[in-house]
Amino acid sequence: MTTGKTEAILLVNLGSPDSPTEADVRRYLNQFLMDGRVLDAPYLIRRMIVSFFILPKRPKQSAEAYQAIWWDEGSPLVVISERVHKQVQARVDLPVGLAMSYGSPSIPTVIKRLVDDSGGALTNLRLIPLFPHYAMSTFETVIVAVQDAIARIKPSLNLSAKTPFYVDPSYINALAANTKPYLEGTYDHLLFSYHGLPERHLKKTDPTGHHCLGSENCCSTPSPAHKTCYRAQVFQTTKAFVDAVGIPPEKYSVAFQSRLGRDPWLQPYTDKTLERLAHEGVKRIKVMCPAFVSDCLETLEEIGIRGKASFMHAGGESFELIPCLNEHPLWIDTLVRWCGDPSVWAEPEQLFPS
User: Fold this and answer.
1) For 50, phi and psi rounded to 5 degrees?
2) pLDDT of the residue at 4
3) Cα dihedral sign, 13-17-20-26
4) Bridge partners for 8 per DSSP
5) What is the reported pLDDT for 81?
6) Please, what is the average pLDDT of the chain?
7) Any bridge partners for residue 96, and if so which?
8) For range 246-254, the mean pLDDT
9) What is the mean pLDDT of residues 186-210?
10) 351 Cβ contact partners less than 8 Å away, ≥ 6 residues apart
11) Residue 26 pLDDT more than 90?
12) Confidence class of residue 1 from pLDDT cuts 50, 70 and 90?
């Protein structure tokens, strides 16, 4: 039985290997790193880097990391995303699909299913990339991947997308409500750990060609570049959150995790910051990761296991990883509201640097 619906919603998260085995992790890393917006080198150079320098050793290391956090139901990121999807679909009249940028279920598979389920009636697809901030390697690549899939499956399908929601009041309120219970106890410092990016990514998405990283205070100096500047946006998220919760400046800081390769990435680095804070006398720390809406390898293993070990080894006494939004009721409410709010959607061309 077909739905006959002319509109549908598509939620997209990053994705995960199908299993924590070395073979599945290798397949996932190959797909992920061969994306030209993730490893932004010419194809042949990218192929050489991935095939000869990354895939020979990294899949085994990453598989061991995934095994440390894997749930009985599967990948935490995928399982949480599926639970969120189910709750949103139960409250939204339109069909809602869930896809992953890499791994399964793939973007083309889910779009084709939505088109088929509509009996070919689908004319409008509303996309919600589950990334609060604009980044070439996350938000932008999702838009492009969906556009490419539509071109192959149903070129007449109209696409609109949710704009980055880094300071959306409902997102900040959900983040605050989710985090407040963890801040009620005694702690010395709150660290915001955002996913890192190579500095060149910021420069590539800077429409002015000169603002991003051009000065020490570039993120606090108004500029059209901030519309697509990941670094400026994470600082805005941090400010909106600490204002909502009431945390004094001396009690929190921002750092960036998950760097890869030798090129300069956004600093300060989370691992180095955790060690520094412990050496400076911070004994009780809490860490939150607002760049992720679902807990995943980067939060549960990189921060919750390795980050904790680094902090404790450097002299820390108490470390707590604050969970991501996951299935928090206010986050579900936010997604449901966006699904029915025409004011949050924009044409893809309006979202890219210009």
Assistant:
1) -65, -45
2) 86
3) negative
4) 125
5) 98
6) 96
7) 9
8) 97
9) 96
10) 134, 139, 140, 143, 161, 163
11) yes
12) low
Measuring CA to CA, which residue among 85, 33, 68, 97 is closest to residue 294?
85
* Total residue count of the chain as it appears in this document: 354
The domain 169-321 having CATH identifier 3.10.180.10: the answer here is no
User: pLDDT tens digit string along 293-343?
Assistant: 999 999 999 999 999 999 999 999 999 999 999 999 999 999 999 999 989
User: 1.10.10.10, 3.40.50.1400, 3.30.465.10, 3.40.50.2300: which CATH number matches 7-166+329-351?
Assistant: 3.40.50.1400
Nearest to 332 by CA among 138, 180, 178: 178
Q: Which two tokens stand for residue 209?
A: 């060609």
Residue type, 267: Q
pLDDT of residue 354: 64
| CA dihedral (245, 249, 253, 254) positive or negative | positive
In this structure, what token pair is assigned to residue 80?
Answer: 């949480």
345-346 vs 158-162, strand pairing mode = antiparallel
Residue 271 contacts residue 257 (beta carbons within 8 Å) = yes
Phi and psi torsions of 214, nearest 5°: -85, -15
Q: Domain coordinates of the chain in residue numbers?
A: 7-166+329-351, 169-321
- Residue labelled with tokens 């895939």: 55
CB 37 within 8 A of CB 120: no
Same fold yes or no, 7-166+329-351 and 169-321: yes
DSSP per-residue codes, 62-115: HHHHHHHH-BTTB-HHHHHHHHHHHHHHHH-SS-EEEEEEEESSBHHHHHHHHH
